[in-house]
Amino acid sequence: MREDHTPANDSLLSATQLSALGLAYEPFITPKDAALLYNDSHQEMSTNIVLKSLANEAKAIVLIAESGAGKTTFLRKILHITHADIESCACRIGAGQTFQQISAKIKQKWSLPDGAEAPAELSIENHVICYLQKHPKLLLLIDDADQLDLASLAQLLQLKHRIEQTHPHALGLLMTGDHKLKLQIITLEEANPSCSANYQINIRPLNREQTHRYVRFRLSNAASDANHPAEDLLDHAALDAVYKASRGNFTKIHAASIEALNQLQRRPLTQPPRKSTRLTAITIIGLVTILVLLTCYLAVQLGIAY
Questions:
Q1: One domain, residues 188 and 62
Q2: Structure letter (DSSP) for residue 148
Q3: pTM above the 0.85 mark?
Q4: Pairing mode, strands 171-177 and 60-64
């Protein structure tokens, strides 16, 4: 799977900008270390539901979300926290890819040992069943499954169903896609009941408070100096503007946050606020007036004394 949420090169902050802002690296490129991925109570709940469902293995799990809502990153998180005894095969689907190409990737990832029947001679169903003999916990992840045509999607769901019918250990299947995938599955369910064994989870955009926490989290992780945290680079008003522009969509949050940082960096960060020359002039005039009045008062007092 590719790194998701990566802004276009022309929208990244330059090294000079990063240094001026006190950032060690671009804060809105998804980190390679999955342990640094953002999490909150809402996402944790969705993650736990997925993990429990995968442990049950009875149904395919379908994550539905709009483009840029973090489906790929969610899969990375699942891969990071699944048990070590679960072997996974991840496929990111591009336009025009078919079930045959997924099958080839599965055979390559879950290759059979020497001495087994030649993989090319085995159907994908029998290949997976052979691999399950010594590897009873398998998880197939299909990112952007909405890019598959109906026939390929049906073959994928039927593969899981047939393995469940013939083998004591099921094939875990986790797919992501937009709302088009939801409609595709409804169409398949009407024609083939074996495609109906799926559990759908909707991934919603972040709300205003989650957006604030997310941006602060990413800025904090990117700080170049632990003694000078970067999480407060954008104030409450700026974070509100990020949410208004993005409505909690991760890709749009990244773009809006980078623009806000660009605007912040254009302003002098260390130059003290400029004093009002008008206020200074008024202060001087006031002091002169006081001195004149004091001089007149002393002159009058001296005249009375003599």
A1: yes
A2: S
A3: no
A4: parallel
